[in-house]
Amino acid sequence: MDQMNLAAAGPALGSNASYIEKLYARWKESPGAVAEAWQTYFTQLETGAVPDSGVIARAGAEARPSCIPENEVLAFAQRQVAVQQLVAAYRNLGAEISDLDPLKNQPARVIPELDPSYYGLTDADLDQVFSTANTYFGRASMTLRELIEALRETYCGKIGAEFMYITDPEEKRWWQQRLESIRSAPSFTPEAKVHILERLTASEGLEHFLHKRYTGQKRFSLEGGESFIVAMDRIVEDAASRGMKEIVIGMAHRGRLNVLVNIQNKDLQALYDEFDGKESAESLPSGDVKYHNGFENSVPTASGPIWVSMEFNPSHLEAADPVALGSVRAREDQLGDREGNQVLGILVHGDAAFSGQGIVQETLNLASTRGFGTGGTVHIVINNQIGFTTSDPRDKGSMLYCTDPAKVTETPVLHVNGDEPESVALATQIAMECRLRFHRDVVLDIVCYRRLGHNEQDTPAVTQPLMYKKIDVHPTVRELYGKALEENGTIPEGRAQEMDRYVRDRLKKSENPRVIPESLRAKHVVDWSPWIGKARTEPATSVPVAKLTELGRAITAVPAAFRLHPLVIRVLDSRRQMAEGAAPVDWGMAEHLAFASLLSEGHPVRISGEDSGRGTFSHRHAVLHDQDRAKRDVGEYIPLQHVSRYQAPFTVEDSPLSEYSVMGFEYGYASASPNALVIWEAQFGDFANTAQVIIDQFISSAEAKWGRQNGLVLMLPHGYEGQGPEHSSARVERYLQLAAGDNFSVVQPTTAAQIFHVLRRQVLRPYRKPLILFTPKSLLRNPNVASPLSDLTSGGFQPVIGDAAVDPARVTRAVLASGRVYYDLLKKREELSRNDVALIRVEELYPFPAGLLTTELSRYPGLDEVVWCQDEPRNQGPWNSLFPQLLDLIPSSVRLSYAGRDENPAPATGYAARFKREEAALLEAAFGTPVKSWRGVKGE
């Protein structure tokens, strides 16, 4: 018999076991060779289903000797069904009574479905033999007593498994076989057990040493959860043994310093310097606290070195999740690793954060998507059972387990007792096997406790007196495990204390407990050195006309058999004319030519957003769809992937309806792709509101805090079109408020040539800065925005665009504007024939082009007033940020004025009539009497 271990049991079926085995073998060879009842029975057993009593009765009747009454067959069949229901119950619910809590802090749960009597089984059935054909305990039949014992050992011990909600029968059977075949019992060699003790000793030793040397300093210690280091060590070893090259870790505070030292081998003196508050020679403008900092290093394993990167993380606990996975995907793409066999992502969570932070579910949802999958992530929950600070478990959420969000994506979960390091190691090993076999996410929930409270300045007994009375007298996991190994003879008595003294001596000498020979160092695949310390020079971004024409032909060609939508045919036809110089280049074609030219020069391009393939406003059409084919991939054609034979990769992804996770993912992707143009595009600019954490904590400040450059582009559609308060403003003011220290560029281009040059500039610069790019909506097809091809073949991006249509000698007023309002001003000036007004566009709002603007204003000798005009209310938009800079810039004899909407708590009105009145009023003010004026005298 094969692994099904099929045999009938009991008075009706058991007496014919050999006959049934023959039937099973015949069915395996040819299903139609056995009776229909047996076909149904065997099929249900193989799929893990519980055969109903009728199926068993019919099958049993065929094998029943004539001397056995039919009613006995049916009665046994019903009991057999009850047994199989009990098996299913243990698989589904066994984790709820597992021995997971080291503190025994919660009352034991009673699960009626795990009692045989729930299914009508009695004590008289305990010694009855039943079929175990649908289990993997290595026996064809067992007594009910033996079966219950095996089920409890497997599903109710130190490991609790949740996987029965998985719909894939193969994967579900794999979990059953993997756990039941060993009854979830660890079995390690003496050498492996000593290694586990060494890791526990190093973990505990570091925490005790830091606690004594830096009393009262926050470090978010791992004490109570030291087995987490055992899990991390096991993952690193397993990954290396399977040929993986890199690991990327995203985690918050708890245990972070321990991972840095005991997994990644961070230099201890560097860590001590951070505790001492020392500034290094490479001190950053702001820097960050020690438990936010990232690190990367080569880690030695028994199978060779592997590169391990720890992502930087702010106090937004789970914000690093999508960032880490974006970095994983970028590394996989660079290695050509489409399956996720060479790079592994590990996300480490707190219990309250996993259940409470929505970004966790958003990130889980990315796992199986085409554009954001990484081949599976190992999630580890350091489950302190208390939540963020002093939460009562009843206040943490509405779920049974903190890991329940994982069930939404059918992610399997292994809960494990943190005081059982061998069980932790086994559960970790199984989790890794699942991830590598099925390329899917898996969650490891290490149930432990927090010995010192939320941080080392906290007194948790104030709010959790009973819990901390138990913790105060509870031995550490190292003490428990060391004593167990000594008692069972694995190590000699006193060896555990020798290990502890060795670790403490090393820590006192600022020496890591584990020494890394130089020969065991791996090479990191991501190299940022070409962009570090480079001068802020501007590159040439123009492209020769012959090259643009060649690229234009390539990106407007489609396979002969590909049937396009009539609208797309017109788009491609017009783009061919643009490439030939027969028509001005519109916004969509300028984007395409920028992308195509970068691709041909060896720079990968990646753009994602909720409508990025087509473009929210139907201007891009980067992905073409065959109108005769509905199947994805087969019915898609992406011209930018066919620019040239040796081009770099082009990726455009329509993302899930998520901003926070996807922006974080793209930031992480850009952090590992310095040579690429990486773009996150909002459907509407205000959608970035829900990703504000990524903007505040990563995009705007990562270089100042962590010394990390990043070239991510945010495309934010912005402009007042009378569409109400929700989709008018991309909140320009927020980015300008964050702008400081040359941290990023804020640009609002108004021509197709400008978008072409600014996208190319972003990658061709010798350094990397994020780019906040406010893109238009209605202007995308405004003929005034289109540029002649010659503007792409010469010149470059212009931070300030002067007014070439007026005579400088006649100008008395200069109206400064940014974005779409410029075209309204242009139209109004023509209506009024106001040739004494110059219209100047500020295309780059930050870094503010003060020198260029001063030069432009100096062209007008009769200038007596400068007006800033904007669509946004006065308390929003660029005005408040630019006002003091304009005051400093313009001559003292020139008046500075504002023309725009009044202050408003909402970005725009939702009434069309009011919008028109406001628009008319601000245009009148720009050419007449502005809303507010200041003399160009400081302090006035």
TrEMBL record:
Record SMART domains: Transket_pyr
Recorded superkingdom: Bacteria
EC number: 1.2.4.2
Molecular function (Gene Ontology), one example: thiamine pyrophosphate binding
Signal peptide interval: none
GO biological process, one term: tricarboxylic acid cycle
Function: E1 component of the 2-oxoglutarate dehydrogenase (OGDH) complex which catalyzes the decarboxylation of 2-oxoglutarate, the first step in the conversion of 2-oxoglutarate to succinyl-CoA and CO(2).
Family: Belongs to the alpha-ketoglutarate dehydrogenase family.
Name assigned to this protein: 2-oxoglutarate dehydrogenase E1 component
Protein's organism: Mesosutterella multiformis
